Task: structure prediction
Amino acid sequence: MSERSDERLTGIEDTVNGKPHLISPEEMVPDRAEAFGAQDEEAVAGVSLWRDAWRRLLRNKLAVFGLIVVILIALASLIGPPIIRWATGYTYDYIPRDPDLIRAFPPFTAPDGSFSWAHPMGTDTAGRDLLARVLIGGRISLLVGIISTLVSLLIGVAYGATAGYLGGRVDNVMMRIVDVLYALPYMMIVIVLLAVFGQRSPMGQLILLFIALGSVSWLTMARIVRGQVISLKNQEFILAARATGVSTPKIIFRHLVPNVLGPVIVYATLTVPSVMLQEAFLSFLGLGVQAPLSSWGSLVAEGIQNIAIFPWQMIFPGATMALTLFSLNFLGDGLRDALDPQMRKV
Amino acid sequence: MFRFIIRRLVITVPLVLVVISLTWGLIRLAPGNFYSSEKALPPAIEKNIREKYGLDKPWYVQYGRMIGNVLRGDFGLSLRYQGQSVNQILAQTLPVSATLGLLAYGLALVVGVAAGTLAAVKQNSRLDYISMALAMLGISVPNFVLGPILVLIFSLNLYWLPPSRWGGFPSWNLVLPVLTLSAVYMAYIARLTRAGMLEVLRSDYIRTARAKGLSERAVIFRHAMRGGLLPVVSFTGPALAFLISGTVVVERIFALPGLGNYFINASLNRDEPLIIGIVAFTSILIMLLNLAVDIAYGLIDPRIRY
Result:
């Protein structure tokens, strides 16, 4: 133990002096307790835990790949549709005036059958550019993923931190409730909720979707935060805060929550793809995003109608979605390895 | 152990009632009615319909009747499928969904555990990387994308397998739905097995087993697997919840007459007795299976006491 911390110190001194790093960061942070100890010492030495984690993340090729792809897809969804509109006049709800154009063209094909750059993903059955629709769908899918994750973050962190810090009977009751909710077939309740309340306005359905998905995905977050808080709450800095008369809510949100951010970020990153998957699942069933809005799930559902004749209408939205989820999962795994070395499965 | 089981069984009853009440409340709080999806009815006819289905009584009478039905295990008549009781529909659709779910989970278990164990034993080999990349792919490709792609390849281009419909058990119609449904679990189980096995293979008791001269096969199958597969056992609980949403999609894609397909239709039609029936039935099923998983967990891992 002491030998290891010596190594860690030399490692840090080397970076400070500008010499190459002799000891890998993995060896520098052998376990959680030392990682938190290291945080204090590094504050003196000038290498923060975050920068260290960032360096570890950059060394993970798959995670970097995921990060780049996610950024590219998010950027494309954000600025792509206006560019397509400017270049070709096609938007997601643009149905061509010319009746000859109201039909499905394969990718890279002009109306006369020759090669053309106009529709890299082809068009849908109403003659709309599929690339524009996929990018617009990406906006909704990513938005649902991010907002529902934020909802689950807010509920999960507040709930878990409260249960973990208060402990005792309160903790027991609160976590028993989480256990019970885990066992419920909540997807069925969500389906009923969306089916009976939905189908009025597209915007209303979207908000319903945020609430429904956010309110079922906070359970794991609450468990993780509680576990972390329990391991932290008996440390000296909390004792010091309590001794100086800081109120309980303030201890929870100002002292405990910032210290559990690492695992929280990791699980938030992994929640985004799972929420996106659930949104797509609901949209696929026709319960999620309603026309004229589209998401990747509803585009796939539309594409399946014509799968035998126009297979590209299903393949492109599906592949875009799979690539995004793939990248987000790799990024999440990479972040876990970087921020929480103890969680790493060797 | 016995007391644990009794306690869990006793808690199941109020839980199922909570789930049903929640579902019932949602259906009732929503604006509109099951007969209001088409054009507006003349008041006299509407009054007759309300009387026939007991909707003219106060809400607590209707709620009480609904709960009474559930407790007696008789969910009444479906509102949409005329002349069929919910119990009949359950009896028809359950075999379809159960066949799908069991076959898919069985396949996932066999392939996932085999791939995960191989990957762990040959850690950092090419085999390890390939199977883990495939597992990540399996987690990332949604089943409603995988299913149509399989149909496209094996039914519409190669003409090997039927693209949809139920053909009983066993039949070729089952191949594509079961593959589609099991892909995700296969991937999860492979990852969990690999992680669990890697941890166990490093432990002291495995070194002892090797040191006393056991064959590598005995070490892995008899000693390592028992500890290494614990995460897989505990995954069974969440997997059950997944399995339900999974079967909904797969039954939808392949036009199979299962519980999930009927559930979606019932929700969209506001077929209240059928919704309540399916929700109650699956909740009870999930809770009993979860209990079975916990008991199995205690039997496998002697460190756990209830």
